Every structure is written in C-alpha cells, then in structure tokens.
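Retro notes (design track)

What went well: tokenization of the new backbones is finally stable.
What didn't: we kept losing track of which sequence belonged to which structure.
Fix going forward: every design gets posted as structure first, then sequence, in one message. First example under the new rule, 534 residues:
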C-alpha cells in the first residue's frame, strides 16, 4: 500500500522531480533561511529609507521656504519707513547689499514701490528702473503658513517669495521680491541625504550581520542533527552528536546518541540478525517516546488516540501540542516509508513541529514553515502527509489545514455525522516555494458541546482482509456516525475492532493510527486520555 501511495505522489510530482541528495549537494538550511531573512530585511530597510529621504526632502524644502519668507518679511518691515522718504534708495540699497553679502544663497532682492519702480536693489544701476516680472516663474505650492498677499513662485533655478510692504495704518507702499538659488536648497538636501544613506547603510550592515548570527544560532541544532544523522547513516556508530539544547531537538539528539551507542554494543556482541533486532527495538522505544504520554489531559475535551505499527517501528505520527494557555496543536501524519528511515523523518518532524509550532498563528503558516525546513533534509522518494489543526479551547474553534492528508471526519451532537472536510495541500517534502505554499489553505469549524472530529492515517481505511479487499472510507464513516454519541474511547475502540474484524488476522502493510477529539458536555466530568497501543 505504501509503495502504491509513493508511486502515485511521484507521478503527480514528475513535473518537477527532486534531485538525489547523494548525486547533487543540497543547499544549506542556514544559508537559505539567512538569505530569506536578509532579503526581507534589506527590502524593508530600503523601503523605509526611501520614505525617510522623501520626508527629509520635504522638511528641508519647507525650512528653506520658511527662511526666505522670514528674510523677506524682515526686509519688508525695514523698507516701510524709507519708502515714505523722497530718496528711499539711499537707505534701501546699502541694506540690501548687506543682506546679499551675508547670504550668498540669495539670487536677487528688490524693493518695488506701488508704481512698479525699483527703489532698492543689490545693484544701484537697477534703482529707478521699472521692475519686470520673470515670465518663467510659476506658482509654487508650499506647506508653510503664509499671510495675505504673500506669494511663492519658482523656476528650475530659483525660489522667489514676494511680500507686500504696508505702513502701520495699512497703506500699501510696494512689495519686496527675494529669491534663493535652487542649487543651494538642493545642496543642503543632498548633504542631508548622504548622511541619512550612510546611517541607513551602516544600520543595514549591522542588521544583516546580526540576522546571520541569529539564523546561524537558530539552525545550528538542525545542522548538527543532520550531519550527525548522515554520519550514523554511513555506519559510523562511534559518532556522537554534540548538541546541548533543552528543546525537542536536543532531546532527539540525545536519543540518537543513545540509539547509536546501543547499536554499537549490539553490533559488537551479536550476529547480524540479533544486531538488526536490537536496532529495531531501540527505534521502537524512540517511537514510543515521540508519541503523546498516556496521561495527557485537555480540560473540557475528551480525547483518545490509537497507534499500531505494521512493522516493529513505523512512520505514522500523531500528537497534541500545548501552544499557550488557550490553544493546542493537533496533528496526525504519515511518512511514506516505514522502518528506521520513516522513524527518523517522523522524529525530525515531531521535533521541528514542537519547537516551531508555537511561533505561528495559523496551521497553513506552520505547515509552510515545516516544509521549508524539512524538504532540504529529506532523501529522494520520501514525503509526509500531515493534518495539522489549532484548537482554541474556550470557544471550540478549530482551524486546520492539510498537506496531502485524508479528509477530516466532523460530527455534531444533534445531527450526528456532519461532513468529510477535504484539504487542498500536497505532501511535505516534495518541493518548496509557491507550488507548495499556494495549495495550503486554512479551514475552520467550531466544536460545540458534544461535537467532535476523527482523524486517521490511510492504514485505517486501506486495511485489507484475506482477499486483499480494503476496509474503505465508507465503513469508517459508518462506524463514526453510529458511535459519535459515545465517548471518544468507545468510538476509537469501535473503529479499531471493526478494522480487526474485517482483516481477520491478515498482516497489514501500513501503520494504523487514529485520533478522536470531542468537546465535553458542560455537566460531564471525565478524565481525558490518549491511549497508545503498540
């Protein structure tokens, strides 16, 4: 059955066949993860820098406009009294020369009387001439607050502001025209931009370095575990995985070290057959450790699990993972491949899911990240079908997604069997990127009191009898519909008994795994257990 399933998924994936890791070197998980984070950090930094530079330019332009407006207002105030004299140019011309000499960025300054004649200028030759407005000047939109009669205009070379000259009684005495060189404004903006870019560049380099160090630290246990498993796979049973971590990966490394130590003893002391038996025995112990403990309890929910391997060790996996005070993760998975290879992949999947699962809010995000970490480390021909859900305990809201796994059986207290919830994803480990990510979709149901779900591996519905006939999904659904009103233990026992009666003692080709979860009635008090059968 497992071989048939493997061939089916291979046929679906032939559009993008995977390379054999032994024939072609795989990419470093640290490098891929670091590059992804660095690209994201670089993009965000550059986008932020662009916004900062735009805002900085707007601020500096506004500051320049405020400055020339203040100078123009000051000159207009000083020009009022001289314009009442017969020869105002004797006062205004020296005044304007001083202003121009002290401010090299000023392009020109004129004081014009109501008749349009220049009464003050930096060049005495302009005095008494008729003021000619520059037709190239166009109105300039400014963000600063201006008074009535004040006007901003500009060309590509200058920014001009004109302010009316009024006597204390409001009499109009003329206008002041003051222009600042655009090149000066641009030079100030360019200098500020250089400093900003320098700061952003240094910050980005520091951020990239810190990112690489953090990613290296995060992925180091996985890399050590991968290298250690490769050494073990080569037959080097003296190799020890030097990994000190309090996470599930550290526990897995310790279990690998324990396993290799015992395998080494068995290899030295026993014949090939006895050595193989010892290897399988140790692997079976590791498999038992990875499955949930029998005394697991979830307040407000009735939960029962069942697992039986087709061989001494298998590739099926289920778990109930506390995420926080109100959420638990629920998973049922099936590794394509049994025995030690299937166990290694299952163990790595369990460790990664328990380590990284609590970081993500949705099942789809969790499966996408899990696939991104698993795929580079899986050998050709292996993949995992997985159901993963996040249950909100107070409300009963179950969000779930599937990676090529079987449909979820959903039942309700009043109506019995509700539906088969199919998922859209493809198995973990076949490929990464959009081909996997875009197919993973979240779905949601709400479990009321007495409502529940049943999830399983295909060892249940594809169990065979002596005539090689399959038990079938219809038979499974029928039993669930009949027994969903009882406890999950009774429901799971009924399904298991139905499968065994149908098989009539026939040896099965695939592991049998089953998980039932039901929300308790408010008045019901009972202990929740996960029962694991070897």
């Amino acid at each position: 059955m497992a071989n048939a399933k493997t061939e089916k998924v291979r046929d679906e994936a032939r559009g993008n066949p995977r390379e054999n890791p032994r024939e072609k070197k795989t990419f470093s998980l640290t490098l891929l993860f670091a590059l992804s984070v660095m690209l994201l950090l670089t993009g965000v930094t550059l986008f932020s820098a662009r916004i900062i530079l735009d805002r900085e330019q707007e601020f500096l332009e506004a500051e320049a406009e405020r400055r020339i407006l203040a100078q123009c207002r000051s000159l207009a105030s000083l020009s009022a009294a001289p314009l009442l004299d017969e020869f105002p140019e004797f006062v205004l011309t020296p005044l304007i020369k001083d202003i121009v000499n002290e401010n090299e960025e000023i392009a020109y300054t004129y004081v014009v009387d109501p008749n349009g004649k220049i009464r003050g200028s930096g060049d005495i030759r302009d005095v008494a001439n008729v003021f000619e407005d520059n037709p190239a000047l166009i109105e300039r939109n400014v963000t600063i607050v201006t008074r009535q009669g004040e006007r901003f205009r500009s060309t590509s070379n200058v920014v001009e502001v004109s302010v009316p000259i009024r006597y204390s009684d409001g009499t109009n005495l003329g206008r002041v025209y003051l222009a600042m060189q655009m090149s000066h404004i641009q030079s100030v903006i360019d200098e500020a931009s250089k400093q900003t870019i320098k700061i952003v560049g240094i910050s980005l380099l520091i951020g990239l370095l810190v990112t690489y160090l953090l990613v290296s630290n995060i992925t180091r246990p996985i890399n050590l575990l991968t290298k250690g498993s490769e050494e073990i796979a080569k037959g080097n049973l003296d190799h020890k995985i030097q990994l000190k971590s309090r996470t599930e990966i550290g526990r897995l490394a310790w279990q690998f070290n324990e396993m290799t130590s015992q395998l080494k003893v068995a290899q030295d002391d026993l014949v090939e057959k006895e050595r193989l038996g010892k290897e399988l025995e140790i692997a079976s112990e590791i498999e038992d450790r990875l499955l949930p403990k029998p005394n697991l309890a979830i307040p407000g929910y009735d939960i029962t699990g069942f697992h039986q391997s087709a061989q001494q060790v298998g590739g099926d996996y289920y778990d109930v993972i506390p995420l926080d005070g109100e959420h638990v993760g629920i998973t049922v998975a099936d590794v394509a491949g049994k025995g030690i290879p299937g166990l290694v992949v299952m163990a790595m999947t369990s460790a990664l899911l328990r380590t990284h699962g609590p970081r993500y809010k949705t099942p789809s995000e969790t499966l996408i990240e899990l696939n991104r970490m698993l795929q580079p480390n899986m050998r050709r021909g292996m993949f995992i079908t997985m159901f993963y859900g996040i249950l909100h305990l107070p409300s009963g809201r179950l969000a779930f997604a599937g990676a090529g796994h079987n449909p979820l059986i959903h039942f309700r207290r009043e109506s019995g069997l509700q539906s088969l919830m199919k998922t859209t994803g493809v198995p973990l480990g076949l490929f990464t990127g959009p081909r996997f990510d875009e197919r993973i979709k979240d779905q949601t149901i709400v479990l009321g009191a007495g409502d529940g779900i049943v999830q399983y591996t295909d060892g249940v519905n594809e169990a065979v009898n002596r005539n090689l006939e399959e038990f079938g999904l219809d038979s499974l659904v029928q039993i669930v519909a009949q027994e969903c009103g009882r406890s999950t233990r009774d429901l799971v026992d009924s399904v298991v008994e139905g499968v065994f009666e149908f098989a009539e003692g026939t040896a099965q080709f695939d592991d049998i795994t089953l998980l039932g979860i039901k929300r308790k009635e408010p008045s019901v008090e009972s202990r929740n257990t996960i029962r694991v059968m070897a």
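Added context from the reviewer: Residues 1-15, 524-534 have pLDDT under 50 and may be disordered.
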